[in-house]
Write the structure tokens for this entry.
Amino acid sequence: MKHAGIIAATLLAWACGGAALAGQNYDCKIKAHSSDGFVPSRVLVFFEDDFAAAHVYDDYIHTYRKHAIQAELTQMGPKKYQLSWDLDGVETTRERVMTSNILRIDIGRMRATYTGYVKGYFNYNRGSGKCVIWKKKK
């Protein structure tokens, strides 16, 4: 899902609150490895200072929630984290569905992999890409 307003998405992400922006933040550009859709082109990750919590923001969250949402955070190893979140009400051509999303980010290598599932269907959509440290412009 490509939005001409991805910059607007970034600006809205700033509005998610000071706590989510206090720590290290990453901008991950994701390239889809399938043509089924449901892979965001970009995921913004906002870690709190102690890496105990994180919020995420992407094309779909922008469309359906308008603000960053908290992700379940698991440390997988040194500088490696898995973030997972669900997003309900995502429109398809036939119905609204819930997506289950997993982003694995290696902040040492500045790489990310994405896996998304549409609940109730036997499928998954994958993507991967590079991340950069993202700083709020003053």
In short: Residues 6-14 form the longest helix (9 residues). The beta strands are 25-32, 42-47, 54-58, 69-77, 80-91, 96-106, 111-118, 125-133. The CA atoms of residues 5 and 97 lie 23 Å apart. Residues 1-9, 11-20 have pLDDT under 50 and may be disordered.
